[in-house]
Specification:
By secondary structure, the chain is mainly alpha-helical. The chain has helices at residues 2-5, 12-22, 31-43, 64-72, 78-84, 88-110, 113-135; strands at residues 47-51, 58-62. Helix content is 60%, strand content 7%. The radius of gyration is 22 Å and the shape is elongated. The protein starts with a helix and ends in a 16-residue tail after the last helix.
């Protein structure tokens, strides 16, 4: 939280979104953990909050003590530390799944009945191919050498 607030004052929900975005979606903090943490930081005199003019939302910013504490933290933000431990293929898999969901939504909203039937067939075939990939007994080290094609 302190690291984020060194950049600019933020709302709690904005911090939640920033952490999720910066971690590639792998670290999703809940309001139930963020707001108590913000209250604790305020109690320790590291941050202050005030109402943003116009919106009425609570805007959090660092105090001088908070800025000093942020400077003493590890130079690598926690979301980057997390990203260093993630398999790049996992990131690619999640991105591909998100793009697939977007395509399915578009087909659902704009396709003809026949096109939707073709999409159902394609999705069922893709699901079966994924299970075939899991069924292959391969060396886990081979996963990085995959070209993404199904055999």
């Amino acid at each position: 939280m302190l690291t984020l607030l060194t950049e600019r004052p933020m709302h709690g929900y904005e911090m939640i979104q920033e952490i999720a975005e910066r971690s590639g979606g792998f670290w999703r903090v809940s309001p139930g953990s963020v707001y108590p943490t913000l209250q604790l930081l305020a109690d320790e005199g590291l941050i202050i909050s005030g109402e943003e003019s116009g919106s009425g939302k609570r805007l959090f910013s660092l105090t001088d003590a908070g800025r000093s504490a942020a400077e003493k933290q590890d130079a690598t933000p926690p979301w980057e530390q997390l990203a260093d431990d993630i398999d790049p293929n996992e990131v690619g898999l999640r991105e591909a799944a998100g793009l697939l969901i977007t395509a399915v939504t578009q087909v659902s909203q704009a396709a003809s009945s026949e096109q939707k039937a073709q999409a159902v067939k394609a999705l069922n075939e893709a699901r079966q191919r994924l299970y075939l990939i899991l069924a292959q007994s391969a060396d886990p080290g081979d996963a990085n050498e995959s070209d993404g094609s199904a055999e």
